[in-house]
Design goal:
It comes from Clostridium perfringens. InterPro entries: PSP1-like, PSP1_C. This is Stage 0 sporulation protein. It is built from 1 helix and 5 strands. A 5-stranded antiparallel sheet has the order 2-1-4-3-5. A hairpin with a 6-residue loop joins strand 1 and strand 2.
Amino acid sequence: MIKVVGVRFKKAGKIYYFDPSELDVKKGNFVVVETARGIEFGECVIGIKEIPETDIVAPLKSVIRVAEKEDIDKHKENKVKEKDALEICLKKIEEHRLNMKLIDVEYT
């Protein structure tokens, strides 16, 4: 058996599993984790639980830390910047008369 926590990056997004190591990660905690895309901020939606190693796709990435005030502040800042980026992208699409629809923006 291996210990994991479930982390979600978007409000209704997919849940990804991470190794909590020796950290005391609880459901509802914000966490900083290592992903294939780099370091990301997410919310722990499933607290520490043990599951069979055969249920895990290796390698299991780690929770780096429970989010600190600075991490949470930066995440809030990025959310504001996402709105600005969305407006800029929509303006550029219109300016260049691109035949496309912007679905989403993400600022990390």
